[in-house]
Amino acid sequence: METTSRVGTAGPAPGPTPSPEPAASAGVEAARRQVADGFVRAAFPWYGLDAAFTGPRWLMQVGVSADGTVQHGTTGHGEEPAIRPDGSGPDDERFAAVVTVAASPVRRTGDGTGVLDATSVSSAAWLAGSGLLAYTWPPQLDHALRDDWLEQQTEAAFALADDLGGPEWTTLSLPVDGVPVPFHYRESEFGWVLAGTTAGGAHLGAYGRGMSAYGLGFAVVEDLAAYT
Q: Of 58-62, 72-76, 152-156, 189-193, where does mean pLDDT reach its minimum?
């Protein structure tokens, strides 16, 4: 599974403030523009929920390889989940995030100093699993223990993504651009995760909470303006 770095996030601040600082507001807007630029620069199509979903949509983050190529990104649907660094906040949000991973073979980095692994459906499963963890750590968990918990759970998500044929996963068929596609699917106390490969070769991951995965459908995003 390929490791990439995030360009940025387009999620909300942890909570509204009566009088936001101008510098903070400018920083959020700059981050949103950076994310949007990353989506536009991608050389592959993005996926999101299909037209049957009529709720809010937004851009979450993009990931780039060591040579600066956009490799994956996530689109959000429903209620924007809030990262809860203090363990507070609602835990009944209804959202689904769709991860698109470009199909890439093993290749050398742009500077010729290393090799980038090929992407696979496991890459999508890993990104989806770790994405879910970012928003769903137990609210009763002591803040001092959060990093240890997140590291343990992230390692577990990596191992699960590398064993898609294992007992933790079942198979779920969902439409992608109207064509049924088999997905690997699992549930946990934090939400659900799924991953599969489209007919066009792109790898799709998704995760969510409060919205059933069984009724979802995916489609190529024709206009990013719907997410901005």
A: 152-156
**C-beta neighbour count of 37 within 10 angstroms:** 13
pTM: 0.81
Interior/surface letters 110-134, b for 16+ CB within 10 angstroms, e for the rest? eeeeeebeebbbbbbbbbbbbbbbb
Cα radius of gyration rounded to whole Å, the chain: 17
Q: Taking the C-alpha atoms of 166, 168, 174 and 177 in order, what is their torsion angle to the nearest 10 degrees?
A: -70
Give the SS3 label for residue 220. strand
Residue listed under structure tokens 């599969």:
196
Give the tokens for residue 183.
């997905």
What is the per-residue pLDDT across 15-53, written as a single tens digit (0 to 9) for each?
Answer: 333 444 555 555 557 667 778 888 999 999 999 999 999
Tell me the pLDDT tens digit for each residue of 118-133.
678 999 999 999 999 8
Q: How far is CA 51 from CA 63, 82, 125, 137, 177, in A?
A: 25, 25, 24, 31, 10
- Phi and psi of 125, rounded to 5°? -65, -40
Residue 150 host element (H or E)? helix 143-161
In whole angstroms, how far apart are CA 50 and each of 47, 134, 206, 221? Answer: 9, 25, 13, 8
